[in-house]
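Everyone, study these two lines:
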Amino acid sequence: MLLLHGGRSEGMAPPARWNLAAARMRPFTRAILGATEGHDVLVGRVRYRHRGWNGERADAAVDARRALDELELLAGSVRVVLVGHSMGGRAALAVAGHDLVRGVVGLAPWCPVGEPVEQLADRRVVLVHGDRDRTTDPLGSRDVARRARAAGADACAVLMSGGDHAMLRRAGEWHTLTTGLVSGLLGLTPLPEPVRRAFEEGRDPATSD
């Protein structure tokens, strides 16, 4: 699996070696490593060349696609789950059509109006968004999930009650849910029951209280 941290809408400078967006993903990495210990699972992260998405350049998506291509050369035809926060969520969704990708977990993803979803066909997609997010719009996640279902994906959006964009409120629950989603999408454990039902019924699950 690959983790993609957040960034900015614009910014050509490279990310600093130590930056808050990347640091915020470290507890998720630790939680996933612990949950997948003993299984043949590789956990990596995408390194961006630029801090920003940068309009039509879509730099974060370009870097994510390059990482997937490199992974395929190194490991062959492995199943990959992408976990992306904010801009990283947008990048994960954008490259989900890659042959290796089986699922996407978007954490407070940046989902602009009209974002393409055709590449999500035959993928499993869960978007988790806090209802107190003031940086990216939870309604964007719901819209992408709805349109992805229409395009042939198993997709749903989970609203985290009280959750914020930085995922600091209810942090432990963000980590636990994400770990359960990754393990479930990789086929190591059953998916969390509300998400499993949502996939079966073609709808969004209830709010995560």
